[in-house]
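job 3f2a | input accepted
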Amino acid sequence: MGWKQTINKWQFILSVFSFILLFVSLYQLEIVTINALNNSCFEFPFFIIKASDFGLDCMTWNWYVRDFWYATIILAFFLLLYAIWRWE
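job 3f2a | predicted structure (88 res):
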């Protein structure tokens, strides 16, 4: 049997989604860290959500956003582990 017969398409999609989510989260976490070092606020694309919308200062906002991306990284890692575990 070739590998194409042993792979489930949903497991493959979950694996790809987990990798993408993991690397995007790591990249966004790097941006949050650079903004924190420069004492500037992290802004989502197109200014969808800003610190001023919640009345927070930049450092508190960066902490919240940083924690969000940490949680996303952990979620993506466990999704990837689950996909690999189900792949076997």
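job 3f2a | The first helix runs from residue 3 to 6.
job 3f2a | closed
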